[in-house]
Amino acid sequence: MAHNPVADAVIRRDRNIVLAGLAAIVVVAAIYTVNMAQSYGGMAPTMMHQHDHAPQASDGFWSLFVMWTVMQVAMMSPTAVPMILMLTKVERSRHPDRSPVGRTTIFFMGYVIVWTTFSAVLALGQVALQSSALPSPQVAGVSPWLAGGVLVAAGLFQFSRLKEVCLSHCRSPVTYFMLEWRTGRSGALLMGLKHGLYCVGCCWALMALLFVAGVMNLLWMAVITALVLIEKVLPNGALIGRIAGAGMVIWGIGLIVLG
Questions:
Q1: Domain range holding 62?
Q2: CA–CA dist 216, 205 (Å, integer)
Q3: In this structure, is the dihedral angle defined by the CA atoms of residues 90, 94, 97 and 102, taken in order, positive or negative?
Q4: Which DSSP string corresponds to 26-79?
Q5: pLDDT by residue (tens digit) across 99-115?
Q6: What is the pTM of this model?
Q7: DSSP 131
Q8: Cα(103)–Cα(91) distance, rounded to whole angstroms?
Protein backbone atom coordinates (compact mmCIF):
# COMPACT_ATOMS: atom_id res chain seq x y z
CA MET A 1 0.00 0.00 0.00
CA ALA A 2 1.38 3.39 -1.04
CA HIS A 3 2.12 5.90 1.69
CA ASN A 4 0.94 9.49 1.61
CA PRO A 5 4.01 11.59 2.52
CA VAL A 6 1.86 14.48 3.70
CA ALA A 7 -0.29 12.27 5.93
CA ASP A 8 2.80 10.55 7.31
CA ALA A 9 4.34 13.92 8.14
CA VAL A 10 1.16 15.01 9.95
CA ILE A 11 1.09 11.80 11.98
CA ARG A 12 4.75 12.26 12.93
CA ARG A 13 4.02 15.83 13.99
CA ASP A 14 1.09 14.69 16.12
CA ARG A 15 3.27 11.99 17.64
CA ASN A 16 6.05 14.45 18.45
CA ILE A 17 3.64 16.94 20.05
CA VAL A 18 2.10 14.25 22.25
CA LEU A 19 5.45 12.78 23.21
CA ALA A 20 6.83 16.22 24.07
CA GLY A 21 3.84 16.94 26.29
CA LEU A 22 4.09 13.59 28.07
CA ALA A 23 7.84 13.98 28.49
CA ALA A 24 7.36 17.39 30.10
CA ILE A 25 4.78 15.99 32.54
CA VAL A 26 6.97 13.01 33.46
CA VAL A 27 10.09 15.18 33.91
CA VAL A 28 8.28 17.61 36.22
CA ALA A 29 6.78 14.74 38.24
CA ALA A 30 10.13 12.95 38.40
CA ILE A 31 11.97 16.08 39.58
CA TYR A 32 9.37 16.59 42.30
CA THR A 33 9.67 12.94 43.35
CA VAL A 34 13.47 13.03 43.46
CA ASN A 35 13.43 16.26 45.46
CA MET A 36 10.91 14.76 47.85
CA ALA A 37 13.06 11.63 48.28
CA GLN A 38 16.12 13.76 48.96
CA SER A 39 14.23 15.82 51.52
CA TYR A 40 13.55 12.57 53.37
CA GLY A 41 17.20 11.63 53.42
CA GLY A 42 17.94 10.67 49.84
CA MET A 43 17.23 7.44 48.04
CA ALA A 44 15.82 5.02 50.58
CA PRO A 45 17.95 1.91 51.12
CA THR A 46 16.87 -1.66 50.56
CA MET A 47 13.84 -3.42 51.98
CA MET A 48 15.58 -4.55 55.12
CA HIS A 49 17.20 -1.19 55.96
CA GLN A 50 14.68 1.65 55.88
CA HIS A 51 15.49 5.29 56.46
CA ASP A 52 14.26 6.99 59.62
CA HIS A 53 13.20 10.16 57.77
CA ALA A 54 10.78 8.63 55.25
CA PRO A 55 7.28 10.13 54.86
CA GLN A 56 5.22 9.73 58.01
CA ALA A 57 1.49 9.76 58.67
CA SER A 58 2.12 12.82 60.81
CA ASP A 59 2.84 14.66 57.56
CA GLY A 60 -0.93 14.57 57.04
CA PHE A 61 -3.14 12.80 54.55
CA TRP A 62 -3.02 15.58 51.97
CA SER A 63 0.78 15.72 51.93
CA LEU A 64 0.94 11.95 51.49
CA PHE A 65 -1.80 12.09 48.85
CA VAL A 66 0.12 14.66 46.80
CA MET A 67 3.30 12.63 47.19
CA TRP A 68 1.67 9.41 46.00
CA THR A 69 -0.14 11.15 43.13
CA VAL A 70 3.01 12.74 41.73
CA MET A 71 4.87 9.43 42.14
CA GLN A 72 2.16 7.59 40.21
CA VAL A 73 2.24 10.17 37.41
CA ALA A 74 6.03 9.85 37.16
CA MET A 75 5.96 6.04 37.23
CA MET A 76 2.86 5.16 35.20
CA SER A 77 2.68 7.83 32.50
CA PRO A 78 5.58 6.28 30.51
CA THR A 79 3.81 2.91 30.52
CA ALA A 80 0.72 4.49 28.90
CA VAL A 81 2.67 5.87 25.93
CA PRO A 82 1.79 3.04 23.46
CA MET A 83 -1.93 3.43 24.19
CA ILE A 84 -1.80 7.23 23.94
CA LEU A 85 0.13 7.20 20.66
CA MET A 86 -2.31 4.70 19.18
CA LEU A 87 -5.23 6.95 20.12
CA THR A 88 -3.43 9.90 18.52
CA LYS A 89 -2.99 7.96 15.30
CA VAL A 90 -6.56 6.68 15.21
CA GLU A 91 -7.95 10.15 15.90
CA ARG A 92 -5.97 11.66 13.02
CA SER A 93 -7.08 8.84 10.70
CA ARG A 94 -10.73 9.37 11.59
CA HIS A 95 -10.55 13.17 11.43
CA PRO A 96 -7.75 14.26 9.05
CA ASP A 97 -8.73 17.93 9.35
CA ARG A 98 -8.71 18.03 13.16
CA SER A 99 -5.87 17.86 15.66
CA PRO A 100 -6.02 14.74 17.86
CA VAL A 101 -4.25 16.45 20.75
CA GLY A 102 -7.47 17.57 22.46
CA ARG A 103 -9.07 14.13 22.72
CA THR A 104 -5.71 12.56 23.52
CA THR A 105 -5.24 15.00 26.40
CA ILE A 106 -8.71 14.21 27.77
CA PHE A 107 -7.96 10.48 27.51
CA PHE A 108 -4.77 11.01 29.52
CA MET A 109 -6.70 13.04 32.10
CA GLY A 110 -9.06 10.10 32.60
CA TYR A 111 -6.08 7.80 33.05
CA VAL A 112 -4.55 10.14 35.64
CA ILE A 113 -7.86 10.50 37.50
CA VAL A 114 -7.92 6.77 38.16
CA TRP A 115 -4.33 6.71 39.39
CA THR A 116 -5.04 9.80 41.52
CA THR A 117 -7.94 7.95 43.15
CA PHE A 118 -5.67 4.97 43.77
CA SER A 119 -3.11 7.35 45.28
CA ALA A 120 -5.74 8.46 47.79
CA VAL A 121 -6.24 4.80 48.75
CA LEU A 122 -2.48 4.36 49.20
CA ALA A 123 -2.23 7.51 51.28
CA LEU A 124 -5.10 6.35 53.50
CA GLY A 125 -3.42 2.96 53.84
CA GLN A 126 -0.19 4.60 54.88
CA VAL A 127 -1.95 6.73 57.48
CA ALA A 128 -3.77 3.66 58.81
CA LEU A 129 -0.57 1.64 59.10
CA GLN A 130 1.26 4.47 60.81
CA SER A 131 -1.59 5.00 63.24
CA SER A 132 -1.99 1.32 64.15
CA ALA A 133 0.17 -1.03 66.12
CA LEU A 134 1.33 -2.69 62.91
CA PRO A 135 4.85 -2.02 61.65
CA SER A 136 4.83 1.02 59.39
CA PRO A 137 5.94 1.03 55.76
CA GLN A 138 9.04 2.93 56.80
CA VAL A 139 10.14 0.36 59.40
CA ALA A 140 9.17 -2.75 57.48
CA GLY A 141 12.76 -3.85 57.85
CA VAL A 142 12.09 -4.87 61.47
CA SER A 143 9.17 -7.04 60.37
CA PRO A 144 10.28 -9.73 57.88
CA TRP A 145 6.81 -11.28 58.17
CA LEU A 146 5.22 -8.11 56.82
CA ALA A 147 7.82 -7.66 54.09
CA GLY A 148 7.72 -11.33 53.15
CA GLY A 149 3.93 -11.47 53.17
CA VAL A 150 3.60 -8.50 50.81
CA LEU A 151 6.23 -9.97 48.50
CA VAL A 152 4.48 -13.35 48.38
CA ALA A 153 1.08 -11.73 47.78
CA ALA A 154 2.44 -9.51 45.00
CA GLY A 155 4.25 -12.45 43.44
CA LEU A 156 1.18 -14.69 43.46
CA PHE A 157 -0.91 -11.92 41.93
CA GLN A 158 1.38 -12.03 38.89
CA PHE A 159 -0.19 -15.45 38.11
CA SER A 160 -3.80 -14.45 38.77
CA ARG A 161 -6.63 -14.30 36.26
CA LEU A 162 -7.28 -10.63 37.09
CA LYS A 163 -3.67 -9.79 36.25
CA GLU A 164 -3.95 -11.69 32.97
CA VAL A 165 -7.18 -9.98 31.90
CA CYS A 166 -6.04 -6.47 32.80
CA LEU A 167 -2.61 -6.93 31.24
CA SER A 168 -4.12 -8.24 27.99
CA HIS A 169 -6.01 -4.96 27.56
CA CYS A 170 -2.91 -2.90 28.32
CA ARG A 171 -0.79 -4.90 25.85
CA SER A 172 -3.18 -4.48 22.89
CA PRO A 173 -3.93 -0.81 22.13
CA VAL A 174 -5.56 -1.64 18.78
CA THR A 175 -7.86 -4.24 20.33
CA TYR A 176 -8.67 -1.96 23.23
CA PHE A 177 -9.86 0.87 20.98
CA MET A 178 -11.74 -1.53 18.71
CA LEU A 179 -13.72 -2.80 21.70
CA GLU A 180 -13.99 0.36 23.78
CA TRP A 181 -14.20 3.18 21.23
CA ARG A 182 -16.32 6.16 22.27
CA THR A 183 -16.88 9.41 20.40
CA GLY A 184 -16.69 12.97 21.68
CA ARG A 185 -14.83 14.43 24.62
CA SER A 186 -16.85 12.48 27.14
CA GLY A 187 -16.01 9.35 25.19
CA ALA A 188 -12.30 10.11 25.37
CA LEU A 189 -12.61 10.61 29.12
CA LEU A 190 -14.48 7.32 29.54
CA MET A 191 -11.87 5.45 27.51
CA GLY A 192 -9.12 6.99 29.63
CA LEU A 193 -10.92 6.09 32.85
CA LYS A 194 -11.45 2.51 31.75
CA HIS A 195 -7.86 2.10 30.61
CA GLY A 196 -6.76 3.52 33.95
CA LEU A 197 -8.88 0.92 35.75
CA TYR A 198 -7.30 -1.89 33.74
CA CYS A 199 -3.87 -0.45 34.48
CA VAL A 200 -4.50 -0.21 38.22
CA GLY A 201 -5.94 -3.72 38.16
CA CYS A 202 -2.76 -4.90 36.51
CA CYS A 203 -0.24 -3.05 38.69
CA TRP A 204 -1.71 -2.39 42.14
CA ALA A 205 0.15 -5.27 43.79
CA LEU A 206 3.48 -4.08 42.40
CA MET A 207 2.79 -0.62 43.82
CA ALA A 208 2.13 -2.20 47.21
CA LEU A 209 5.77 -3.31 47.24
CA LEU A 210 6.73 0.30 47.96
CA PHE A 211 5.23 -0.14 51.43
CA VAL A 212 7.98 -2.60 52.28
CA ALA A 213 10.71 -1.40 49.94
CA GLY A 214 10.46 2.19 51.12
CA VAL A 215 7.83 4.67 49.99
CA MET A 216 10.45 7.05 48.61
CA ASN A 217 12.86 4.39 47.38
CA LEU A 218 13.89 5.75 43.97
CA LEU A 219 15.59 2.51 42.95
CA TRP A 220 12.46 0.46 43.55
CA MET A 221 10.31 3.04 41.78
CA ALA A 222 12.54 2.64 38.72
CA VAL A 223 12.48 -1.17 38.96
CA ILE A 224 8.69 -1.30 39.25
CA THR A 225 8.23 1.15 36.37
CA ALA A 226 10.60 -0.88 34.20
CA LEU A 227 8.80 -4.14 35.03
CA VAL A 228 5.38 -2.64 34.21
CA LEU A 229 6.71 -1.25 30.91
CA ILE A 230 8.30 -4.61 30.04
CA GLU A 231 5.05 -6.44 30.77
CA LYS A 232 3.08 -4.08 28.55
CA VAL A 233 5.47 -3.65 25.62
CA LEU A 234 7.80 -6.61 25.09
CA PRO A 235 6.54 -9.68 23.19
CA ASN A 236 7.36 -11.93 26.16
CA GLY A 237 6.40 -9.30 28.70
CA ALA A 238 3.72 -11.42 30.39
CA LEU A 239 6.18 -14.30 30.81
CA ILE A 240 8.80 -11.98 32.25
CA GLY A 241 6.20 -10.68 34.69
CA ARG A 242 5.47 -14.22 35.88
CA ILE A 243 9.17 -14.94 36.28
CA ALA A 244 9.44 -11.78 38.38
CA GLY A 245 6.42 -12.95 40.35
CA ALA A 246 8.07 -16.29 41.08
CA GLY A 247 11.15 -14.43 42.28
CA MET A 248 8.99 -12.31 44.61
CA VAL A 249 7.38 -15.42 46.09
CA ILE A 250 10.75 -17.09 46.69
CA TRP A 251 12.19 -13.91 48.17
CA GLY A 252 9.17 -13.40 50.40
CA ILE A 253 9.22 -16.97 51.70
CA GLY A 254 12.93 -16.60 52.38
CA LEU A 255 12.33 -13.46 54.46
CA ILE A 256 9.57 -15.18 56.44
CA VAL A 257 11.55 -18.36 57.08
CA LEU A 258 14.83 -16.64 57.90
CA GLY A 259 13.14 -13.86 59.87
A1: 5-258
A2: 17
A3: negative
A4: HHHHHHHHHHHHHHTTSS---TTS--TTS--GGG-HHHHHHHHHHHHHHHHTGG
A5: 999 999 999 999 999 99
A6: 0.88
A7: H
A8: 8
